[in-house]
Amino acid sequence: LCPPGVLPLCRRPPAWDRATRPPPSPLQPPGLPLASCRSFSNNKIQVELDESSGVAMMKLKSPPVNSLSLEFLTEFSISLEKLENDRACRGVIITSAVPKIFSSGLDITEMCGKSMEHYAEFWRAVQEMWLRLYGSNMVTVAAVNGSSPAGGCLVALSCDYRIMAENPKFSIGLNEAQLGIVAPFWFKDTFVNVVGHRVAERSLQLGCLHPAPEAHKLGLVDELVPEEKLMEKAAAVMAQWLALPDHARQLTKTMMRKAVLDRLVAHREEDIKNFITFVSKESIQKSLRMYMEMLKKRKS
Ligand code: CO8
């Protein structure tokens, strides 16, 4: 069924049969109990799957800032895998349960003063999360209800569609350069695929964090809506995407994303080695420590 050179994104066999199911019912407004709703949660992530619509709501709930620690990344990947393998699930909306913050990106403490083994394990978990999310067969919608720097931005960029709360205090971008570190090639590829080369080049070099209205102008997010309308809008967008047959949409997604995914898969071990070499340099450790100190000072 696959055109030559196009492979399904995920290890799960494509669910052609799911396309024959009746069209999804619109999601119920947030706050109301969902009909035929299944939920599971762990320390960091809460998931509710509405079986009647085939849509899961994944809420990131790791206060204070949803930083992507090793534990968080592991639980994120496990949750995605569970949904991917669940025949009742066709789409997932990712949002935050922490007020004002979608995700603060990779947990910087995981990259400071740790062993080589730890860096390797951490980086493999970052890769795994991205491979699963960017390569998901499900429709993925990011409902960005707060600031979303660096790794947080990567999570949003890896989805099929991004809706952001229109609060100008919320910002999003790959700001690695501001920390004295460099976004890896697959962060960059994901970014370029969303905003184009010129915007990505400038934004990456300057480590820009774009306020929501600017992010919308650049195409970094697809839509801005008032915060109270965010979930309603995400549900409507999801219903629109799910109205199409799964197999056509999935093969198209594969066609668009495969080259970028394959590039990391082919260079995964090399990428881990590069990360370890880079992050364990004393100059990089110093930059990260200074950045953490700056965050703490800003607070006081
Ligand atoms: N990692 C670890 N701890 C963090 C992080 C983080 N990313 N972000 C915030 N924290 C901590 C703060 O230090 C603070 O700790 P404490 O309470 O002990 O003082 C606590 O979380 C709360 O932070 P704030 O007081 O700053 O909370 P605010 O609500 O005022 O602000 C923000 C929230 C906007 C998210 C702000 O914390 C911020 O800007 N954080 C930094 C975000 C950032 O720059 N992240 C980049 C991480 S790097 C990454 O994701 C990609 C790396 C790619 C690797 C490249 C190869 C080396």
UniProtKB/TrEMBL annotation:
Source organism, top-level taxon: Eukaryota
This enzyme's EC code(s): 5.3.3.8
Location(s), subcellular: Mitochondrion matrix
Record keywords: Acetylation, Fatty acid metabolism, Isomerase, Lipid metabolism, Mitochondrion, Transit peptide
Entry keyword Lipid metabolism: yes
Residues in the signal sequence: none
Entry's Gene Ontology cellular component terms: mitochondrial matrix
Protein name per the record: Enoyl-CoA delta isomerase 1, mitochondrial
GO MF terms, alphabetically ordered: delta(3)-delta(2)-enoyl-CoA isomerase activity
Lineage start: Eukaryota, Metazoa, Chordata, Craniata, Vertebrata
SUPFAM superfamilies recorded: ClpP/crotonase
Organism of this sequence: Malurus elegans (Red-winged fairywren)
Pathway: Lipid metabolism; fatty acid beta-oxidation
Subunit-level organization: Homotrimer.
Catalyzed chemical reaction(s): (2E)-tetradecenoyl-CoA = (3Z)-tetradecenoyl-CoA; a (3E)-enoyl-CoA = a 4-saturated (2E)-enoyl-CoA; (3Z)-dodecenoyl-CoA = (2E)-dodecenoyl-CoA; (3Z)-decenoyl-CoA = (2E)-decenoyl-CoA
Keyword Membrane: no
